[in-house]
From TrEMBL:
<keyword id="KW-1003">Cell membrane</keyword>
<keyword id="KW-0812">Transmembrane</keyword>
<dbReference type="InterPro" id="IPR011527">
    <property type="entry name" value="ABC1_TM_dom"/>
</dbReference>
<feature type="transmembrane region" description="Helical">
    <location>
        <begin position="29"/>
        <end position="50"/>
    </location>
</feature>
<keyword id="KW-1133">Transmembrane helix</keyword>
<dbReference type="InterPro" id="IPR036640">
    <property type="entry name" value="ABC1_TM_sf"/>
</dbReference>
<dbReference type="InterPro" id="IPR027417">
    <property type="entry name" value="P-loop_NTPase"/>
</dbReference>
<feature type="domain" description="ABC transmembrane type-1">
    <location>
        <begin position="31"/>
        <end position="321"/>
    </location>
</feature>
<feature type="transmembrane region" description="Helical">
    <location>
        <begin position="168"/>
        <end position="189"/>
    </location>
</feature>
<dbReference type="Pfam" id="PF00005">
    <property type="entry name" value="ABC_tran"/>
</dbReference>
<protein>
    <submittedName>
        <fullName>ATP-binding cassette domain-containing protein</fullName>
    </submittedName>
</protein>
<keyword id="KW-0547">Nucleotide-binding</keyword>
<feature type="transmembrane region" description="Helical">
    <location>
        <begin position="261"/>
        <end position="283"/>
    </location>
</feature>
<dbReference type="InterPro" id="IPR003439">
    <property type="entry name" value="ABC_transporter-like_ATP-bd"/>
</dbReference>
<feature type="domain" description="ABC transporter">
    <location>
        <begin position="354"/>
        <end position="595"/>
    </location>
</feature>
<keyword id="KW-0067">ATP-binding</keyword>
<keyword id="KW-0472">Membrane</keyword>
């Protein structure tokens, strides 16, 4: 009972929200849909009553043989035909409005979901539970709001049918009305129960569905295709894909069979009630208590009324299911995203540069810190290089600097002001960054450079300057369409670049941001040939006279040019100084430098 009430409350809450969503999607269509629904609800009783008039007049006409009775029967027939035409029209109208609304609503909900995704922190994307939530809301939520609204309107329509039928049937017997309603109840109870079970199954299996999506992506996409072929992983992946399906299918099949069997058994109750009433009506007709026309009308009312009632009850079950799915959507849309509080677009100590003060950072859920009390000061125009073994925290440091994450303790200051107090956009506009795992957009060459500064996305002059700094211009000039060449294989006449060429594009992207006075380069030249690398770093100072630069590299030849070098190990800064100072220190840096130098001799 309590569960039933909570189910109804949940339907009410989400039903209201779904209607609001549909209403804001397209008001005119919603109103038209409501009108057609109203007509579809009122017309069936008129048709049933017209049927009674026709039969009674036919019986009368066959008895009297009078022409006016004959014409009256034909007249009623014409009337019924007209009403049926209206009924068909309104049904079509409902279907039409619903299919238009479905498209609009699908788009709207997807935009809401994608818009929300844009406001999320990076940490959200790295959290598998959150990912599940997003997948769940994307998979079903775009069709569910309309389904809920469709069912709500259906409910109104069926209720109208039922009320008008009830008005006709009650003249025969109140008990007949009661019997029909009671007989439909068991089917309703079983529907809501199975709807809940289906939903819980869907919730549990999101991780599996995501695994399936991932396997699909591996098998049917261009990026992994080369490895999948060469390592002959295809069959293994397909087997995994199939195994997940078979496991899910077994659960689905059990539920579907149970649902089907119960629905059938419980619908028998309704059938028995219906035929019981049928016998009763036939009996009364034979006894001459009701006319032949009334018999016809009651049978129509009885049969269709019962269908309408059953469909109201199953609609409530379906609405419950829809509202459960919608709860996923709203749970995702309402996920709290802390509002960035910072407002500042200027520091309190202009030209103080960048300071890390005892910055410690733990990734969510990690027990070991990725950075341990890191401190350094970078002055305007200064170039800092960071070296260290894999996993020592170099990239993490950059993620904190760019505010993709916030320090667990300690603070980072730019021009004397902690990063949290900066307005995020103002801060990010001051930073030009290229990550190790930069994006290869399936856009044109020019746009791939232009995304570095979205305000100047299509500025061809800037593309050229940036590409020249990133040493990309020579090979771009050789492409058939220059900056207009489409990159990647997804779209027509797209072409692929080599790893080093892509890296040059990514480096140029960082140079697009001319307003940036902090340049962050995470392994910017690791895939480039030796000559390109030398060309870039020979001119690096000249190209970035006033910019602070943080350069991460495993190549000591590039690191040398920095004013200061920071050696990191397991989240700690273990050595700091210029190339010469560190060599003199004869510590880790000197050791690694000697190793690399020996390799070149
Ligand atoms: N998103 C993440 N979630 C949890 N832990 C992470 C994440 N990214 C990195 N780590 C962990 O944090 C530590 C520092 O990683 P980081 O990427 O900063 O290393 P790095 O010095 O840049 O390494 P490399 O030279 O391989 O690029 C590593 O132990 C890594 O496993």
């Amino acid at each position: 009972m309590v569960r039933g009430v909570s189910q109804l409350l949940s339907i009410g809450r989400y039903g209201g929200r779904a209607i609001q969503l549909v209403w804001t999607t397209n008001r005119r269509l919603t109103i038209v849909l409501a009108l057609f629904t109203l007509i579809s609800g009122l017309v069936p009783a008129i048709v049933a009553y017209a049927g009674k008039l026709i039969v009674d007049t036919v019986v009368l006409a066959s008895r009297t043989g009078a022409p006016q009775d004959r014409w009256a029967a034909i007249g009623y027939l014409g009337f019924e035909a007209a009403v049926v035409a209206v009924q068909t029209g309104s049904r079509q109208g409902v279907a039409l409005c619903q299919s238009l609304l479905r498209v609009l609503l699908g788009q709207k909900v997807n935009e809401l979901i994608l818009g929300k995704a844009l406001t999320l922190d990076l940490a959200h994307f790295e959290d598998s539970e959150f990912y599940d939530k997003m997948t769940r809301s994307r998979r079903e939520a775009s069709s569910r709001p309309l389904s809920l609204v469709g069912r709500t309107f259906g409910l109104v329509q069926d209720s109208l049918i039922l009320m008008t039928y009830g008005g006709l049937l009650i003249q025969f017997s109140v008990w007949a009305v009661v019997a029909l309603m009671v007989a439909a109840l068991p089917a309703f109870i079983s529907e809501t129960r199975f709807a809940g079970q289906a939903f819980r199954l869907f919730q549990w299996r999101t991780p599996e569905s995501r695994q399936q999506n991932y396997l699909e992506w591996l098998i049917a996409n261009e990026a992994p295709a080369m490895e999948i072929k060469l390592y002959q992983l295809g069959h293994m992946l397909l087997d995994r894909y199939r195994a997940i399906f078979l496991r899910l299918y077994a659960e689905d099949r059990d539920l579907t069979i149970r649902r089907g069997v119960w629905s059938y058994l419980l619908s028998l109750v309704s059938t028995i009630a219906f035929y019981g009433a049928y016998v009763w009506i036939v009996w009364e007709t034979i006894a001459g208590q009701i006319t032949l026309g009334e018999l016809t009308m009651y049978l129509v009312v009885f049969r269709q009324g019962q269908t309408a009632f059953a469909s109201i009850l199953t609609a409530v079950g379906g609405m419950y299911e829809d509202s459960l799915y919608l709860s996923n959507l709203y749970e995702f849309l309402e996920e709290e995203v802390p509002e960035p509080l910072g407002q500042a677009s200027q520091g309190v100590v202009p030209n103080d540069g960048l300071r890390f003060e005892n910055v410690t950072f733990y990734y969510p859920g990690n027990e070991n810190p990725a950075l341990k009390a890191v401190s350094f000061h970078l002055k305007p125009g200064e170039k800092l290089a960071i070296v260290g073994e894999n996993g020592s925290g170099k990239t993490t440091l950059i993620k904190l600097l760019t505010r993709l994450y916030s320090p667990t303790s300690g603070q980072i200051l730019l021009d004397g002001l902690v990063l949290e107090k900066w307005e995020t956009v103002a801060l990010q506009r001051r930073i030009g960054v290229i990550f190790q795992s930069f994006m290869k957009y399936q856009f044109s060459v020019g746009e791939n450079v232009g995304v570095g500064d979205v305000v100047h996305l299509s500025d061809r002059d800037r593309w050229s300057v940036a590409a020249s700094k990133g040493n990309a211009l020579p090979f771009i000039d050789q492409l058939s369409n220059g900056f207009d060449t489409q990159l990647g294989r997804w779209f027509k006449s797209g072409r692929e670049l080599s790893g080093g060429q892509w890296q040059k594009i990514a480096l140029s992207r960082a140079f697009m941001r001319t307003s940036a006075d902090i340049l962050v380069l995470d392994e910017p030249t690791s895939a480039m040939d030796a000559e390109s690398e030398v060309q870039i770093f020979d001119r690096f100072r000249e190209m970035t006279p006033n910019q602070m630069a943080i350069l991460i590299s495993h190549r000591f030849s590039t690191v040398r040019m920095a004013d200061r070098i920071m050696v990191m190990s397991a989240g700690d800064v273990t050595e700091q100084g210029s190339h010469e100072e560190l060599l003199e220190l004869k510590g880790r840096y000197a050791h690694l430098f000697a190793l690399q130098a020996a390799g070149y001799q």
